[in-house]
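ligand=WT7
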Amino acid sequence: MSHIGSYDERLRDFSWEISEKELDYRPGKEINIGWYCSDRICLQGKAEKTALIWEGLMGHERKLTYDDLRKTSNTIGQYLRDLGIEAGDRVCLFMDKIPELYIGFVGILKTGAIAQPLFSAFGDESLFVRLENAGTRAIITQKKHAPKVRKIMDKLPDLEYLIIVDHDPARPLGAKERTLDLWNMPWVDAFSIYPTFAETPSVLHYTSGTTGQPKGVKHVHYSLISQYLTTKWVLDVRDDDIYWCTADPGWVTGTSYGIIGPFSMGATQCVMDVGFSAEAWYKFIEKHRITVWYSAPTAIRSLMKAGNELVTRFDLSCLRHLASVGEPLNSEAVIWSEKVFGKPFYDTYWQTETGSIMISNYPGMKIKPGSMGKPFPGIEACVVDPKTFEPIPESGKIGLIGFKPGWPSMMRMYWNNETTYQNKFKNGWYMPGDRSSIDNEGYFWFVGRDDDVINTGGHLVSPFEVESALLENEMVAESAVVSKPDDINMEVVKAFVTLKPGFEGNKDTELVIMNFIRKKLSPLAMPQEIEFVPNLPKTRSGKIMRRILKAKEWGEEIGDTSTLEDD
Ligand code: WT7
């Protein structure tokens, strides 16, 4: 049984006030996530406790106490304020998982500015659309990523500063370029935190949809109320835990549960900034005595592939609680983890827009391998009929997931996109865009997405974004991008392409186009396969029918083709 009480006990008389009280927050009072993640923990007598243990390439390691986190984030906050950054300005974090990313996030929030984290593997085009949409004023990055920013800076009039944390003094700085060398400057002990309130914007995360450019999901400081309590109740993080969230803060898991959750609890967390290898991961767990581990199905499947024998070479008895998010966690993975770690992975379901875990396997609750679990207390969830948007009362029937709006970490808006935001609500329900059924015990069983977005290894890729980028290649006439099945990543990107006259579709052409997308967008968005076709299936109005191509890839029935003519 969990030390935090059973799921049923927690459901009874649940109110978000439980979280507010634990955080000493009262409605109408100031609330600043940056303060909660550092200053408050120091005030609680934990200034000397380790906040962050970081490991980079070649055994490079850095440890920060909560007092270090407080002072370094003050330092970045003061630095930004001195540059003229004001509350409400968007400041982008564009870095690998280095300490400055975590500290910068906390520092930005202390100034009242909005943190806009972007995945450091993004190419210049992915970066450009997100910075342009947000009207970003400053970007903090590493010298290795700076060239991608320099390439687009002239097209971004709002972008006033390119701040480099590891600048090479031998290289002259451009007019808009600044340096920030946190490890060789005096740290600021006292910083006046900007008075933010519940509804003050905090974080802007970009997420991909089926149509149009990525949307900026706007969160507010009050999201802490959800993030804190779910970290405690679902991830089961306790004061003496050594926690490891494997997600990159370029994505929401890496901020909600890789920064805000663990730091606001005053836990010790570990970060590993090296590429994936099963051996390195096990070594990391063993070395730091990790107790709570939050990861993703693709990583778990890769670990499974590395075999059971490898696991026995390490002492992983430190692990107490394992959780997963991002894509369907197949029952085999849950059963495997129980076998090799002696503990199952607890699946959790949520998305960028929800800001925190919505449906999950709660510690102490019976796990049904393959099910996402049950709604977090305070979350009203159902599946609705896709036509009427009325809740489906029968168990086992597939419908669209619906959440009753009003939980603290719900997005407040898509940046500059009121219409798309409003379209996410139907009949009073917030629609995350996923299909599921609910069994007779209230467990949710994920079925699939309700759109064409590709979920590759837990990362959403918009077919529209890849198709648009493909069209920018001189050889491409038309394209359609769909998912295709993959053993490890569940889905990967596949492109169907028709070429312009004079170009021939062969292995070389395929490689050139693949690299073009990898550089422009990201390795995630790069098609793993390009099939050259003479033409693409279209509706009478000329719309490309991705559905037909996708069904073929998945070996599914194509279904009603009358819509092929008109859709
Ligand atoms: C989409 C959200 C916040 C988590 C990181 C991804 C899919 C998420 C699960 C799960 C099946 C899942 C959904 C969701 N998804 N968790 N446990 N089982 N599917 O955040 O990039 O906003 O993606 O990922 O389709 O809508 P995101």
